[in-house]
Amino acid sequence: MPLHRRKTYDESTLYEYAVSALARKMRSVAELKRLLRQRLPAGEESAALVEAVIARLKDQKYLNDTAYAAAYSSYRRENQKFGRLRVVSDLKARGVHADVITKAVTAAYAGDDEEKLAREYLRRKRLKKPANAKEAARIFRALLRAGYTSRTIIRILKRWDVDDEVLTALESEANS
């Protein structure tokens, strides 16, 4: 059985790998660092190599968290109809700095009516007016996962004449 050797990377081959990774998918600085670290053995030399490649990519404007956050936010709002809370949590998970997230999400959702966007999400997912409490709870949880505030969700469900008792239970569930 042949032994598999780990490929050795110098700065130029690691740079080429990083560029090809960015060509496949836009990534944040933190995501790309994680990806590059997986290719190298642990140690100070490897960390310096990763930082050198990241600095080179930033200088060449291939890597920019501000542009990444702006593109990501507008894509998730326009195409997937997600609420701002979902986009914020997704960007945090991708390692984008909080200030960058705030600016990008605020710009992407400027002037949007959250209730209208939530209704578009419901249409996209083909979710109809609930016939009972169980269906109302399913819609409530789906909208909550999609990043909408419980206040907006309650307003939508009230317009659908969902029982106030059910709404109170759902709201207390969301706040706990």
Q: Can you tell me about this structure?
A:
The longest helix has 16 residues. The protein folds into three domains: 49 residues; 44 residues; 62 residues, no CATH class. It is built from ten helices and no strands. The mean pLDDT is 91. By secondary structure, it is mainly alpha-helical.
Instruction: Please indicate the count of domains.
Output: 3
Q: How far from one another are the termini? A: 55 Å
Which structural category fits the helices and strands?
mainly alpha
Largest sheet: none
What pattern of helices and strands is seen along the backbone? HHHHHHHHHH
Secondary structure layout plus pairing:
Blueprint: H1 11-24, H2 29-39, H3 44-59, H4 65-78, H5 84-93, H6 98-108, H7 114-124, H8 133-145, H9 150-159, H10 164-175
Summarize the structure.
The protein is mostly helical. The chain is built from ten helices and no strands.
Q: What tags apply to this protein structure?
A:
176 residues, mainly alpha, 10 helices
